[in-house]
Amino acid sequence: MVSGGEWALGAVGGARSWSRRLGWVVADSAVVARRYLAHLVRKPDELVGTLMIPVLAVLLFGFVFGEAMGAAMGLGGDGYRDFLMPGLFALTMAFGIGNTTIAVVSDVGRGVVDRFRTLPMAPSALLVGRSMADVVAALVDLVVLVGMGLLIGWRWHLGVGAALAALGLLLLLRVAFTWVGIWLGLMVRSPESAMKFFSLVFPLAMVAETFVPAEMVPVWVAPVAEWNPLSATVLACRELFGNTAVAGQGWVAQNAVLMALVWPLVLLAVFVPLSVVRYRRLSR
Amino acid sequence: MDTDTAILARGLRKDYRGGRVALDGVDLRVGAGTVHGLLGPNGAGKTTMVRVLATLLSFDSGRAWVAGADVVARPWVVRERIGFVGQYAAVDEVLSARRNLEMFGRLYHLGRRRSRSRAQELLERFDLVGAADRPVRTFSGGMRRRLDLAAGLVLDPRVLFLDEPTTGLDPRSRGQVWSMVRGLVAGGTTVLLTTQYLEEADRLADRISVMDTGRVIAQGTPGELKERVGGGRVEVVVGRTEELGVVAQVLERMAGAPPSVDVDALCVRAPLAGGGGALTKVVRALDEAGLDVEDIALRKPTLDEVFLALTGQEGDGSGDVGGRGSW
Fold first, then answer.
1. Cα–Cα nearest to B254, from B275, B215, B231, B285
2. pLDDT tens-place string over residues B50-74
3. Which of A138, A154, A180 lies closest to A62, judged by CA?
4. Which residue of A has its CA nearest to B88?
5. Which of A44, A84, A272, B279 is most open to solvent, judged by the fewest CB atoms within 10 Å of its CB?
6. Which residues numbered 38-97 in A keep a CB inside 8 Å of some CB on B?
7. What is the CA radius of gyration of chain A?
8. CA dihedral in degrees (B107, B112, B114, B115; nearest 10)?
9. Where do the H-state alpha helices sit in chain B?
10. How far apart are CA B301 and CA B222, in angstroms?
């Protein structure tokens, strides 16, 4: 009746070294990531949906309001579009939260997660795999947006290395937001209630350095815009791409690249453990 | 835990938030290679029981072993030895049936080639080869259920948990699931299934635990439980009111208990043990009494009646579902 009476095979499962465990996390996550990527290929509407807003924003803010915005900032239309693109890159990274949350909450609701949880797979693999797939999706998003930027005259000016560093910061932000999305997906009960959160994400993505510099928003929201995780990445990208920037006086503006690393890492340090713990305790 | 025992639970207790008791000290022993049915209405604790044993849910006290391993101390060992098929088809809707099975194979660490060949085997066994490469969202309920079952069998589990495996299926698909379960058990798998259908428990299970409000209120083979519940009852419908009295006399003699007379329905009901043979005797006795009855039927106990017999109180109202089944 006690563990000594267990069948011989049990000992094999019990003797799991850390390195072997880590190996399974990677292997299992890759299997899960392939599942989500297959979704992307077979149901590309998710990708199209994420890209709709930034692509429309390029047209709307770049051209419809572009001249006026540029004039207000003393940049002119072309200058504003140069200023705008890094903001839209980061905005797209933020909007990815929606897809992540909905994918996670529908897996939980449909019982797919139950099955995964009864498999002898690494418990974190479902979540890690999802975030891996999201990074690949984000890469596709960025390729489309960079292409769109190049079409309307946006350029990087400081060499390929700095440009790739900027893209790296954007992907890092996406990874961090992915885990926020995973956590939300595990907390809410239905895709409908997830939608309510996005009405919050929307203004938060706007009240940042995205469309206008923090200096130009009303004083009472300026700290929100300045300390918004999105802002650091937007400012760092403008710096690394050599795009038009409006010289900011704030501490974050002075240390944008550093903060573009710190913010995502802080978000990861908070939301990865929260998500893994929540996943293990689902429906307890 | 000896090798004849596939599942053993001792005093399992689980309280949900808000003080609702889901499991109130449940003991269970399921012999290896047998089918055990958990029967009861909604909210009886059947699903909680299965989820606890499948390592999906924690519990507050008691101990449980599945396929030789303690579910709390060594859940990963349990997971290598079980298959779990929940109430809702837990397969990926976007992927094809084949990709689903291959994915689960990989997650069971079968390796790429073995996962692929195992997927093919299961597709053939569950008659899904024709639809193997179609997205699952195009599948009918029965096909989905079959795929779901196949996904629970990727690793040839020693113990298979089935939570209401045929709820919502048409009779043909239900029959298919039943014959698949029988095939598995013939191959040595132990099955723990929950059901609201008496018929399902009767057809599949070697032993049945009847659950109500988190407790096992009766346990035994289907035959033993039938005896405890008692036989069915006979209903005789006549054409004219004046015949009711004579019928009642005949039935009282046959049944040994006073029948109830429903004047509006022109119907006399009495408990009757002994099945078809007893019914023949009743028909003969009525004939000898010179009665020409409109209708005569042997009614099987409904789930409500089972609960009435076992607990002395009415079921929670979901018993009408079980009433379709028959003992």
1. B285
2. 999 999 999 999 999 999 999 999 9
3. A154
4. A111
5. A44
6. 38-39, 42-43
7. 21
8. 50
9. 46-53, 75-81, 97-107, 112-125, 141-151, 171-186, 198-204, 222-229, 243-255, 275-288, 303-311, 319-322
10. 13
